[in-house]
Amino acid sequence: MANGGDTADTSIRTATSQAVVEAVATAEGVPPAELCPPEYEPLHDVIDPEALDALFAPRSHGGPRPGGTVTFTYCGYDVTVETDGTVRLD
């Protein structure tokens, strides 16, 4: 794991769950499609991807959500998702 963490820019509005998978795959040096069992645990085993996407999706009127973060452990990384969609791995 990188000292100080790695981040992924999700300003193009990738679904948050997909951004998490892509960030972990990049850190592991594998394509996202290869981030699967038996070597890697499925994301849905640690967090509900649909709930994660909904939590960070723009509001129905298009405005941003208020500040906040979610942190969980996935594939050996402490994953933190920021309100702006930034994914940080520690």
TrEMBL record:
<protein>
    <recommendedName>
        <fullName>Halobacterial output domain-containing protein</fullName>
    </recommendedName>
</protein>
<feature type="domain" description="Halobacterial output">
    <location>
        <begin position="15"/>
        <end position="88"/>
    </location>
</feature>
<dbReference type="InterPro" id="IPR040624">
    <property type="entry name" value="HalOD1"/>
</dbReference>
<dbReference type="Pfam" id="PF18545">
    <property type="entry name" value="HalOD1"/>
</dbReference>
